[in-house]
Every structure is written in structure tokens, then in C-alpha cells.
Specification:
This protein is 29% helix and 23% strand. By secondary structure, the chain is α/β, with parallel strands linked by helices. The N terminus is likely disordered. The structure holds NADP nicotinamide-adenine-dinucleotide phosphate.
């Protein structure tokens, strides 16, 4: 008989809410303060109450966002920020983001466009196209309709979030010093990273993102400057969490989905 060891009993890794109480030694936060944050692999945010350490990934909520809007920010934005910093993206460079309607991709579109100043093309399937346009992508391409690498377009950076494509496939669409950035990768891509860093020219970069509190504070600033926004598709009440998951899994979401308590 098979058994499943469910180590994480409560899912969810991003949150926004009000501090109910603080420990005696807590200095940075106070009761009643509105905060947002990220619990990473520990999860546990699908809950009415959450206990966070003072030095966890938690910051004061951006003043120009509701709890719902702020709650969807941390995961994708922290990942995308770290990964894009890794490749030293420059103003005016051309970027292709594959997976642009997802958690990391939707943040990468906004950061690449409004923070790094790049020219952004986003790739996703039909339901997400409008959403990615609203985030600020200069162009959107539907991977279900045609091969997005068929055009003559040549990029400085191709950011493949799910890692479904390969360096050999992307090479022809990269500039001579272009970079292929993978958020998801196995040993073959890691070997290509080592090889291309020695050889010079077009490069593969595989990187793990380690979120930090200072990054979340920086993200709060970007939000307040209007460089990052949340587009909420649907909110589900706490009791309908499984419906929220079904809605996302059906593949029709046109923005972020939130669970409200
Ligand atoms: N490097 C790191 O530190 C790190 C950290 C966290 C996660 N990750 C990796 O990031 C990935 C998850 O990213 P996420 O949370 O942004 O995922 P997500 O929210 O599920 O988004 C996935 C995106 O990929 C698109 N997509 C699906 N199939 C595609 C295809 N065949 N061609 C092109 N695009 C396609 C989806 O578009 P449609 O919905 O329109 O189909 C959607 O935009 C995982 O592979 C995970 O391992 C890496």
C-alpha cells in the first residue's frame, strides 16, 4: 500500500495581512501594522493566522495596494528580481520572456520593462495574452498558435521560466553576446552554462533565486513608485480554496488568483 507523506499540511507561500500581536522582543513591527511577505518552502499561508519570525521575509505592505493585491506580489517578484539581476539586464535591451503569464513571468515582464528599461516580448497561451499586455509587455506571442522563434527578432536575453526549451533551440534568436536564462534546469543545462562561460559568446545562465527581506523592501518601493502592479483575476473566499486551485488548473486565469480570509 502506498502512503503519502504530506510534510506541509497547510499550503500557500505568500500573504498579506494585519499583525495581530508581536513578541516581547520584536522591534521592527507593531500590533495592527499591515504587512506582506513570503514563507517559501515552509508554506502555511492558507490560514487565518500565521506566525512569522521578525527576521523572516516580511515587510510593511505598500501603501498603494490592497491586501489582495499585495498578497500575490512576493513569490514571483522576488524570484524574478533575483534572476534578472543575475544577468545584468541593460536599458533598451530586447528580452523574450517565455512563461510571461505565470507567477515569475508576470513579475519579470514588469521588472524588465519598468525597472530595467528593456523592450519586452512575452510568451504565453491565449487566455493570458491580454494580462501580459496590461503588465506592460511591448509584444505578446501565443505559443499555442505559432512558433514564437520563427520571427526575425533577435534578443539580448531569452528568459525561459519553465525550462521547456533548449539552448540549441534558442541560439539562433540570440545576439552574439546574448544570454539564455533558465529558472528551471537539470544537469545538461548546468553543463552548458559551464561550457558557454568558458567558450565566450552566447551564454547559458541557470540560477537559483534566494529571496531576502531587503529585496521585499525594495519591491515595496517599486510598487509605490508605480513600477509594479497586481492584476487580480478572481478572489475566492477561504472556504473555497480547492475551487481556486481548480480554477487555476483549468488554465483560464487572466491574472492573479487570491484567497481571502
Ligand atoms: N530558479 C529558481 O530559484 C526558481 C524558483 C522558483 C521556481 N522556479 C521554477 O519556476 C517554474 C515555475 O514558474 P512559475 O511559478 O512562474 O509558474 P506558473 O505560474 O505555473 O507559470 C508558468 C508559465 O509558463 C507558461 N507555459 C506553460 N507551458 C508553456 C510552453 N509549452 N511554452 C511556453 N510557455 C509555457 C504558462 O503559460 P499559460 O498559462 O498561458 O499556458 C505560464 O505563463 C518551475 O519550473 C520552478 O521550478 C525556479
Amino acid at each position: 500500500m502506498a502512503s503519502i507523506n504530506l510534510k506541509r499540511k497547510i499550503l500557500g507561500n505568500t500573504f498579506a495581512g494585519e499583525i495581530e500581536s508581536v513578541g516581547n522582543e520584536v522591534k521592527q513591527f507593531r500590533e495592527g501594522e499591515q504587512v506582506f511577505g513570503y514563507t517559501g518552502e515552509k508554506m502555511g499561508t492558507y490560514a487565518e493566522y500565521l506566525c512569522m519570525p521578525e527576521n523572516g521575509i516580511i515587510a510593511v505592505k505598500p501603501s498603494n495596494m490592497t491586501f489582495e493585491e499585495a498578497s500575490v506580489i512576493p513569490y514571483g517578484t522576488l524570484m524574478a528580481l533575483n534572476l534578472l539581476k543575475r544577468v545584468n539586464l541593460q536599458k533598451g535591451q530586447k528580452v523574450l520572456i517565455i512563461g510571461a503569464s505565470g507567477g515569475i513571468g508576470s513579475a519579470a515582464v514588469q521588472l524588465a520593462k519598468h525597472y530595467f528599461g528593456a523592450e519586452v516580448t512575452g510568451v504565453c497561451s491565449t487566455p493570458g495574452l491580454e494580462f501580459v499586455k496590461k503588465l506592460g509587455a511591448d509584444k505578446v506571442l501565443d505559443y499555442t498558435k505559432k512558433d514564437y522563434l520563427q520571427s526575425e527578432e533577435i534578443y539580448d536575453l531569452i528568459f525561459d521560466i519553465l525550462g521547456k526549451g533548449s539552448f540549441s533551440k534558442y541560439k539562433k534568436s540570440l545576439k552574439e553576446t546574448g544570454i539564455c536564462l533558465f529558472a528551471s534546469f537539470k544537469s545538461k543545462k548546468l553543463l552548458q552554462m559551464i561550457w558557454t562561460s568558458i567558450k565566450g559568446g552566447k551564454k547559458v545562465v541557470c540560477s537559483l533565486s534566494i529571496p531576502k527581506t531587503e529585496d521585499l523592501i525594495f519591491v515595496k518601493k517599486l510598487i509605490e513608485e508605480g513600477k509594479i502592479k497586481s492584476i487580480i483575476d478572481k478572489c475566492f473566499p477561504f472556504g473555497q480554496t480547492s475551487e481556486a486551485h481548480k480554477y487555476i488548473e483549468a488554465g483560464n486565469k487572466k491574472g492573479n488568483v487570491v484567497i481571502t480570509v
